[in-house]
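Hey,

Quick one before I head out. I ran the complex with calcium ion overnight. Inputs first:
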Amino acid sequence: MTAPAKILVVEDEEQLQRMLRSTLTQAGYEVSTAKTGLEALEAMVRQEFGVVLLDLGLPDMDGKEVISQAKAISRAPVLVISARDNGKEKIAALDLGASDYVSKPFDAAELMARIRVALRPPRVCKEDQEVKTVGLQIDVASRRAIVEGRSVRLSRKETEFLQLLAEAHGAVVAHEKIIESIWGRGSDADYMNVRVLAWQVRRKIEPDAGAPRFLIAEAGEGYRLNMD
Ligand code: CA
């Protein structure tokens, strides 16, 4: 059984928030709510959502500002719900990266249909590949790792390192191979650079950096990514 999709409802009107929560929960979704733009962005930093339902009229910031900031921290499609039924607002929201737009008052069945569309996984192209291990996902395109639902940003080298290890499917990748692949042949980088890089990656992806679960060092050989 797959886990229910998580939906973040960003709506300051309590009655509407309650209505959305109960409708979505009944439809089998896992619902979180936020009343302000800031709360919404904080929730998106903490976890990944399948869809974010966003009211444009929020007390602390314009919903359009939330859309542009959300794009930097989350891959969740943003479905705008707003009373502002005018073309300009709609186009502005879509230009900022909203995936769809529903005007208030909306029909619950229509909203559900749009959520289902937004939840469909985007077509996977090569650059958008996700490398998966148990409890750890590496999104090469957006340079993030998702560890048990927590999303962390990776630097370019950290992403390349994890991708290299993931492509070895659990086999040890030698220090020389890592250096050549990340710093390039003939660079000054050495074993210490690899250790520092591994340390940086562990601080981000390991629940307990002192007892690594994913990024395993094989003394005198190299590193492997634990795929068990
Ligand atoms: Ca509102």
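The longest strand covers residues 6-10.

Talk tomorrow,
K.
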